[in-house]
Amino acid sequence: MTLEDIIKETKTYYCLECGKCSSICPISRHNPSYSPRLMLEKALNGFEGDLINDQELFSCLSCYNCLLRCPADVDYPLFMQKVRALASAQGKYGVPAHSGTLQSLMRLMSNPAIEQRRLEWLSDEYRISEKADILFFVGCAPYFESVLDFKTGALDIAKDSLKILNALGIEPMVLADEKCCGHDLLWTGDVKTFRKLAEHNARIIKESGAKKIIFSCPEGYRTFKFDYPHYVDLDCELQHITEFLAENMGKGKLNFKEAKKKVTYQDPCRLGRHLGVYEQPRKLIEAIPGIELTEMEHIRDESICCGTSAWTNCDAYSKQIRTERLLEAKATGAEMLITACPKCQIHFKCAMVSKGEERGPDVEMDVMDIVNLVASALGDNGSE
Amino acid sequence: MNGFNLSRSICTRQLLQTKRRRKITEFEPRIIVFACNWCTYAAADIAGTSRIQYPHNVRIIRVMCSGMIDPIYVLRAFERGADGVIVAGCNYTDCHYIDGPVKCDVMFEKLGKCIHTLGLEDERLRRELISTSEGTIFAKVIKDMVNQLKKLGPSPFRKKVKS
Amino acid sequence: MAVNNSVLIIGGGIAGIQSAIDLANMGFQVCLVEKSPSIGGRMAQLDKTFPTNDCAMCILAPKMIEAGRHANIKLLTYSEVLAVDGEVGNFKVSIKKKARSVDEKKCTGCGVCVEKCPWKVNNEFDLNLGQRKAIYFAFPQTVPKLPVIDREHCAYFLKGKCRACEKFCEAGAIKYDQEDEIIEVEAKAIIVAAGFDLYDPTPLREYGYGRIQNVITAMEYERLSSASGPTAGELKRPSDGKIASDIAFIQCVGSRDVRSNRYCSSVCCMYGTKEAILAYEHQPGTKSTIFYIDLRAVGKRFQEYIQRAKDEYNVTYIRSRPGNIELNHHTQNPIIWYEDTTTGETKSLEVELVILCQALIPPRDIQEMASILSIELDEYGFVKTPDGLSHPVDTTRVGILACGCVHSPKDIPDSVVQASAAAARAAEILSGGT
Lengths: 384, 163, 434
Known about the structure:
- By secondary structure, chain A is an alpha/beta fold.
- Chain A is built from 19 helices and seven strands.
- The longest helix of chain A is centred in the middle third of the chain and has 18 residues, at 191-208.
- The termini of chain B are close together.
């Protein structure tokens, strides 16, 4: 694909060059010289070399703030995704976080000859089925703990999701040779490896006969819903666990015991702006007796991103974005920040682990995923 | 990218040429050793000067301290087609930078879990503490690993080796 | 009561009035129907007009009076069209003349009733920024000079009490039992000059209209700066009544935007500049910043007007469409976040008052009107005039013409020109042409 093709496909020639995208972009807020509009302008004016060699091309968080505000219907995130693919094909990458460990891990995972041992955390207390209509997609959770040097809690999200599903009487399939959904590779331009992962996942899910896939990670959900259809053929119903629980908890099957806590909720970019799921997590939190949900200043489609996407170009500005969000959470007086995305959780926790005056004030805040909150509040029926 | 450009290393080319010359059909594992400058690399040197024989399947990469070894080096080694990787350095009391081996242990434990979850056999990744004078031990470790790997076969990642 | 008139004009704004006067002067009979209690339309709500900064009412009022006094023009104000039957040359129109509760033949327009009425109501003419009485004149210069009782807020009609207006009226013109009348009008041609409404910026949540007190719309600004408005012409901002001297205007609110309307609203660049100039005239030293994408200054002397704004009236133009307006909780000042597209830097600007230059949209009841008239509208709701080159004011129904802002957004001079065009076209039809 050439740059001209990308411009045509993403209709970026509609751009009015009004700058609305830059003024709402969370990165531009902290790094005033970062300008999505300028990148588009470079593309439209034929400065392909400038664009491809610019490391800031990989700074975009694909948070969708610009897409929701653009008056000219320009799909900037898609444009940027495709230009990254172009750059990557020419050997230009951004600055991968953690020296590229995550991307390397995903490439290794894409190899068809491996036999992973990714279900060793699945002890007898979690019940799964060999064959069921519902499949629970675990994603990269088993790997995060072994790559990052602080406790991410990602595996607890998978465990608690299963605990809640079991409490509802559901024993989903959990596939032993599932692979990374490929989200981070797609968004850093490695389309070839992404395709391998997508094709593998599509094949094993089809073979399993699953009819519905439940995700605890909005990135996986978004990738299956919006990106996979361009590469593979997979005909399953897709839901985030909060959507599923919001639908099913009313049927009287989930009992909660009281938990006295004041919490606030972070709308993840992927679950919120990308997928439009705003109400169900709130409904779920408010269903737990004793929980007081107080909202931050910027919520729903105005929610602030956690600051890093696709493990790339994570820098001082990322820390500033996260810190701003954590300060907002602290300002509500809540004891705990509830997220619905393992990545948000990891990035917020990282902000608190990496201290240092030059990157902004230090904030201490408890962070927990919504399924952790729900699982901890399960009453008697949860301990069967 | 962090620059260990193995696929263009002269050694790999030589190995391939050697294979072609000898028309070897038996599997020859490729082992990468990350050796700390002060201890393990010196040990390998001693092994060499003392004419202690050890298999040719090794490529030794000198780092200043085992504590600076990042998981990415090992993962990239496997990506590029290494069958086995050894992470080696000083003993705990010998480190020139005081606590390198401790840092390396912490990293290695996590890395080991990652490699394990990926499905690789535990034998493919080794941690060794080899001090300067232990040239014979270095040779033994290499021999050991080559034998193990010959039984295990090539790394599953070897099939698609690309940068 | 059927009246044999030749042309029916729907809408008593500047375009409707112009058409009416033109036709009347040519000798044709005109019936001018207006749904509000007075003719004058939106121009009566404006303070000054660009590019001359003439007082709007000073230009409008003479025309209103001429229309009111002309022998060939019959004014039906506070009236609505109910049905249109027939065809060109022979339209039969039913018009509902709503009850003012005031006897036209007796009322002298003295205004005592308004003075004595004790009941106050939000004034929609002032966009609810000020109040009027339950019996009221929409503005001081109404034509006809007859008050109207707002039956939904009058104590007599709600509870049977008060009757102050009746008590004080020396002409005995108050008629509580007045009823709506249905009037049948025959016309050979119809001109639709129903004008426009203004885009409500509430859905564009990033601008903070409704959330931040000191973010107001352009029409609200016009009323604030009007001498006849709720603050007698002082630019007092909503939160604390402070006179704003550091203000910002945001162009293209509700226009050139896929999320609201794709079209360009044509007049906003000019009226934004006008309002900035007026702010300086009311309070010398006022600093205005106008956020624009393109400056569309197409008419006569329009570009020079903009140059004057920059040179003499302390107006700064920034090429940018702001992404977000936030609030400084201590000062109640809006903070505008924007990217200066000439330098690529993202910046913020704190001002005392933000004015959103909202787009002109078709009247809110246009769908109903179009189905009564059996004419087609375009995808935005403006009246369709399919043959733009040969018959530029003809709608999709023969004999019905459209002019002014209901046709497409335009400024006052262009509305007047198009009104005269519609009048000429109507005259053509009435003189036996097609």
